[in-house]
Design brief:
This protein has a domain of 95 residues: Serine Threonine Protein Phosphatase 5, Tetratricopeptide repeat (Alpha Horseshoe), CATH 1.25.40.10. Strand 1 and strand 2 form a beta hairpin. It has 261 residues and is mostly helical. The chain is elongated. Helix 6 runs antiparallel to helix 7, helix 9 packs antiparallel against helix 10 and helix 13 packs antiparallel against helix 14. It has a two-stranded antiparallel sheet with strand order 1-2.
């Protein structure tokens, strides 16, 4: 997932009207104004300027969760993910039921390969916003990386969401999870759904072929696997960068022909 200024636009809570406070005869900007300025700088990808403004807001009010979240996003985009995590952990101590805080900490940890650390934050975010697709996508991926069967439940939820209606991706991943956990019947059903929604997907064709070939591992399933291997070759015929994998598939088809002429 690339870091884009749009992340901040989507993650920031709405800020209030601009306010000014006076202290000791010196004009001091209220946090709402500081965060509005930081937000504007972030939209223009001026992350360092945004960071300074957000940091000032956190210094003025260390319990301002919106300021801490903004500061964390600025730190992340300035190349300081560890400090960003610290700011978000501080925000969670103050407001553990804040979706944006839990999601962003889970996302940053996920992006840096800290799967065991991020899973609980993403689960917390999912509880707070059960239908948020971005949360479900990350949670499904991290649970799959942790070899958890519960990843299939998350992919199933994604498969039935409007964003993924009639798309093969979640069904394909659900099938992979079930296959890896030895539930071949559920895996077969999911691969059939994936193929139904994505018959022109070379990924589905190859995964289905491998499943039939190595997981079901019967004479009939291997004959069926050859059909999907050949479909994979047809779908990737104009992809020279995939030639190495195509050669492997062709070799496998020849090997199966010798075993099951």
């Amino acid at each position: 997932m690339k870091k884009q200024s749009g992340i901040v636009i989507n993650m920031l809570m709405a800020v209030g009207a601009l306010l000014l406070l006076c202290s000791c005869g010196k004009e001091v900007k209220h946090n709402a104004e500081l965060l509005t300025l930081a937000y504007d700088e972030a939209k223009s990808a001026n992350w360092d300027k945004a960071r300074v403004l957000a940091r000032t807001a956190t210094e003025q009010d260390p319990r301002d969760v919106t300021a801490l979240t903004m500061y964390a996003l600025c730190l992340e985009n300035c190349g300081n993910p560890e400090e960003a995590q610290q700011a978000l952990r501080q925000a969670i101590k103050i407001e553990p039921d804040n979706f944006r805080v839990q999601y962003n900490l889970g996302r940053i940890l996920f992006q840096h390969g800290r799967y065991e650390d991020c899973v609980n934050h993403l689960r917390a975010a999912e509880k707070l916003k059960p239908d948020d697709v971005n949360t479900l996508l990350l949670l499904a991926q991290v649970e799959e990386k942790l070899k958890l069967l519960s990843a299939a439940d998350i992919y199933n939820k994604l498969a039935r969401s409007p964003r993924f209606a009639n798309r093969p991706g979640p069904w394909n991943q659900m099938a992979v999870v079930y296959a890896e956990h030895g539930n071949n019947l559920s895996a077969l059903k999911c691969f059939m759904q994936a193929y139904k929604h994505g018959g022109d997907s070379y990924i589905v064709a190859l995964n289905f072929a491998v499943f039939l070939d190595y997981y079901l591992n019967s004479v009939d399933s291997r004959k069926r696997a050859v059909q999907f291997y050949r479909q994979y070759l047809r779908l990737t015929a104009n992809n020279p960068e995939m030639q190495a994998r195509r050669d492997e598939v062709s070799d496998r088809i020849r090997a199966l022909a010798r075993v099951n002429p």
